[in-house]
Design goal:
It is a single chain. The chain is an alpha/beta fold. The chain is built from 16 helices and 22 strands. It has a 6-stranded mixed sheet with strand order 6-7-8-3-9-10, with helices on both faces. The C terminus is likely disordered.
Length: 503
């Protein structure tokens, strides 16, 4: 092995415990010091499994069947004592930031790894300041991580890993929850690290900023590498052709006089004195899809958590289905509002897909019939997977299962936090088609999204937040089709975005 090679996978295949189908099939890949390698591919292709294999986590923490050889800095991962020894040389940023954040403040989170490096106090302070500035989290230093938005948490997780100064850096969907400014900042940091000799392996669903800075681009499909070259070469290859995520609108007028299902008036919410939502007025009608957009930390997730009582107003009011969300028990609000979290894995813990849906349904409606479970699974296209272990599903299937868990309870309002994060165009389209059908049945849909294509294509209204305030609230399409100007219901043809496939 060349001394310049930081990571090496030779004929690596891997099968998860309890599965008969390999998630990786004879993978051969090297990453050199100072090189940025970008890995992409369809949902469920094996991208995250590849990152776990390259980091040594599959061998040391997962079990299963690992064949072939994974080497880190010329040493087989089997020869490392454990992940803590590997961690001295290799840092990993997972797509689930919550799993990595354990300290009481952001500064403690970033500084925690530095304390074990034997640095002087001055050097530790210098590195801490540098990494916090470069990732744009200096202003969050004294905040508790659990009070941050999803994008802010992701930046903190990245900063904590960067601070360690490891020779190898592996990132799994690091910018999925980041706005444009934060993504650009991370790109700049990765370029600097590569110039200094760090090997960088980035797994991302979206081809954008990080692909542009990569030295090489890898496409993986069905557990196999199908393309490996410079980004320009791969993007010119027929395998990398893709159609932008768009939809063809067929205009269906909807002129409803129904009362709002959600009414928000003067809503204020503070975390430890920090005003995350600053006087919001907002309404949602039955049969309406509303996209809530804005930069990281603008207040999007804080707003929607008031709809089902996960947060209570500091000031102002939130009325859902005629109930005061400030005082109504969460169990009662859950009958009217279903929330699908941005990471579906936080909702999944049962042994089968069917049991997963049944759990929440039984809690709200004891003795509910199995027909409701079957109907929900049929709605999301997972009825044939009813006996499967949920964690063995693809990312897109797990997202659809999380939606099934909510729609089985038939709530008036379905709230989704970043429903297309980590999904390819095909799976994003399937999720949007599900939401379209639910809207046509009269459900109100509120979705937080960073993907303006999704908002512009699939929503009736786009509500933009900035620094806790609404700065834009308008319909994505308007037309005088009745005596008064009314909301429009946009039926859509299926999404035409293709996955990265050879067909």
């Amino acid at each position: 092995m060349s001394p310049e090679t930081a990571l090496s996978l030779k004929d690596v295949s891997y099968t998860y415990p309890g599965s008969e189908t390999p998630a990786l099939k004879r993978i051969n890949l090297t990453v050199a010091k100072g090189e940025i390698v970008f890995v992409t591919g369809p949902t469920g292709a094996g991208k995250t499994t590849l990152a776990l294999a390259a980091s040594g986590i599959l061998y040391h923490d997962y079990g299963g069947t690992l064949k072939g050889q994974v080497s880190i800095l010329g040493r087989n991962v089997r020869d490392y004592r454990d992940m803590s020894e590997i961690g001295r040389h290799l840092g990993v940023v997972f797509d689930d930031a919550d799993a990595q954040l354990i300290f009481t403040t952001v500064e403690e989170e970033v500084a925690s790894g530095l304390e074990n490096l034997g640095l002087s106090r001055d050097e530790m302070r210098r590195r801490l300041q540098e990494v916090m500035e470069s990732t744009g989290i200096t202003a969050l230093a004294d905040r508790a991580p659990h009070t941050l938005s999803g994008g802010q948490k992701q930046r903190v997780a990245i900063a904590a890993t960067l601070a360690l100064g490891t020779e190898i850096l592996i990132l799994d969907e690091p910018t999925a929850e980041l706005d444009t400014e934060a993504t650009a900042a991370v790109s700049t940091v990765l370029q600097r690290l590569a110039r200094e000799g760090t090997a960088v392996l980035v797994v991302e669903q979206k081809i954008g900023e990080l692909a542009a800075i990569a030295d090489r681009m890898i496409i993986i499909e069905d557990g196999t590498i199908v393309a490996d070259g410079t980004p320009g070469q791969v993007m010119r290859n027929e395998r990398a052709s893709s159609t932008p995520l768009t939809g063809n609108r067929r205009m269906i007028p909807r002129c409803s006089d129904a009362s709002p299902i959600i009414s928000v008036h003067g809503l204020v919410h503070r975390y430890d004195g920090i005003e995350a939502v600053a006087g919001i007025d907002f309404e949602v009608s039955p049969g309406e899809i509303v996209a809530v957009v804005g930069e990281n930390g603008s207040g999007k997730t804080t707003l929607i958590k008031h709809f089902n009582g996960l947060l209570r107003p500091t000031d102002g009011s939130v009325i859902v289905a005629g109930l005061d969300a400030a005082t109504t028990p969460i169990s009662e609000l859950a009958r009217h509002v279903g929330l699908v979290f941005q990471n579906p894995d936080t909702m999944l813990f049962a042994d089968t897909v069917e049991e997963e849906v049944a759990f929440g349904l039984e809690n709200i409606y004891p003795g509910a019939s199995g027909e409701r479970i079957e109907a929900a699974l049929h709605e999301v296209g997972l009825l044939h997977r009813r006996t499967v272990y949920p964690r063995s599903l693809s990312r897109g299937e797990r997202q659809r299962l999380a939606i099934a868990c909510v729609i089985a309870m038939k709530p008036d309002v379905i709230v989704l936090d970043e429903p297309t994060t980590g999904l390819d165009a095909r799976e994003s389209g399937r999720v949007m088609e599900i939401l379209e059908r639910l809207r046509e049945e009269g459900h109100a849909i509120v979705m937080v999204t960073h993907d303006m294509r999704v908002g512009a294509t699939c929503a009736d209204r786009i509500v933009r937040l900035k620094q806790g305030k609404i700065v834009q609230d308008g319909e994505t399409y308007q037309e005088d089709t009745c005596p008064r100007l009314c909301s429009m219901s946009h039926g859509r043809a299926p999404f035409t975005g293709s996955t990265l496939s050879p067909n």
